Amino acid sequence: MPVKTHKYSNGEVTVVWKPDVCIHSAICFRGLPDVFNPKNRPWVEINGASTDKIIDQVRKCTSGAVSYFMNAEKNDEE
Ligand code: SF4
């Protein structure tokens, strides 16, 4: 079965979330609650912080449930 993913883009960066991988360790929403807030739907508010802050926080996810790519790089590949 393919891994479920959700994508959230602000036009510059895209955050990819894999709900089945997420261990709900809360690292992301303690670190950047303006973006990652499980009480909200969708729970990722991609416009809640700058691209740099989002990337910093995504890198701290220990499980790999969230990752990111820069939209410009992705477009180059295609
Ligand atoms: S840091 Fe990663 S594993 Fe933890 S809640 Fe956030 S997305 Fe899920």
Write structural notes for this entry.
This protein has 78 residues and is an alpha+beta fold. The chain has one domain: Alpha-Beta Plaits (2-Layer Sandwich), CATH 3.30.70. It contains three helices and three strands, in the order ββααβα. It has a three-stranded antiparallel beta sheet. The chain is globular and about 35 Å long. The model has no long low-confidence stretch (mean pLDDT 94). The structure holds iron/sulfur cluster. Iron/sulfur cluster binds next to α1. Pfam families: Fer4_19. This is (4Fe-4S)-binding protein. It comes from Panacibacter ginsenosidivorans.
Give the strand order, joined by hyphens, for the main sheet. Answer: 1-2-3
Write the CATH architecture name.
Answer: 2-Layer Sandwich
Q: Please give the count of helices.
A: 3
- The count of strands amounts to 3
Judging from the principal axes of the Cα atoms, what is the shape?
Answer: globular
Outline the low-pLDDT stretches: none
Measured between the Cα atoms of the first and last residue, the distance is 25 Å
Bound molecules: iron/sulfur cluster
CATH classification class:
Alpha Beta
H and E order: EEHHEH
Quickly count the domains: 1
How can the largest sheet be summarized? 3 strands, antiparallel
CATH topology: the name is Alpha-Beta Plaits
How many whole angstroms does the radius of gyration measure? 12 Å
Which percent band covers the strand fraction?
15-25%
Which class of secondary structure composition applies to the elements? alpha+beta
* Portion in helices: 25-40%
